[in-house]
Amino acid sequence: MLAVKIIIGALLLFMIFNLFRAMRVMLKGGEHEPMSKFIGRRVIASVVIVVLILIAVATGVITPNPRPY
Known about the structure:
It holds the Pfam family DUF2909. Keywords: Membrane, Transmembrane, Transmembrane helix. InterPro entries: DUF2909. It comes from Glaciecola siphonariae. This is DUF2909 domain-containing protein. It is a single chain. Helix 1 runs antiparallel to helix 2. The protein has one domain (2-59). The chain is built from 2 helices and no strands. It is elongated. The two termini are 26 Å apart. It is mainly alpha-helical.
């Protein structure tokens, strides 16, 4: 359970890191790497996070909060 949370946290940090790298490329404009490379990495990381959460909930590794009523 703790490993899943650590992996999700690391992927979220990876997404934020790539967001700022894409911003730097956008503001400078003259780098060799295209901005779409970093945005694509963010999209892939978010897909991996969603799939990981769905698998963890389906297998019972993590449990969602109970209903409020």
